[in-house]
Amino acid sequence: MSRIGNKPISVPTGVSFNIKENIVSVKGPKGNLSLSVHKNMNVKVQNENENSLVFVIRPNDSKENKSLHGLTRTLVFNMIEGVTQGFKKELEVNGVGYRVQKQGNKLNMNLGFSHPVVIYDTDDVKTQVEGSKIVVSGIDKQKVGQFAAIIRAKRPPEPYKGKGIKYANEIIKRKEGKAGKSSKG
Asked: Which pTM does this prediction carry?
């Protein structure tokens, strides 16, 4: 039994929630999002005075429907949270000579290569630079996470000195370097 799928989602004031033929659209102060829901899942809105509740209902207890139940509820919840508060991921750039600059809508990174690495902001995802930190923000949780992963992949952290781009809350397992020459004989 999906415990997450059974929880109702409260829609805050200032957010409009529409369902049309398995397409859920949410409009809020930060923007608009829409999602095509699986045909087995049924999304219903119940109005309680000013605060409306959204329920995701599954038709039966088959394995596929159980897995889709919690997923659908979480995706709808993330849409509502995205249009009201938004999402952000923080990355840290560590290393001697590694620099990050924001120039207009492009992120210019010097990461120890012979050339600078340039990544352009999209319409959905924006970046900001605060010293050696990169903040990726947007209203779609999946797009924010994917954009942050693309930036991190340009120079992932290495385990010996910790140089590279890492998430702010990521812990890098450190390895010991080469041991000194052992004298035999």
From this structure: 0.88
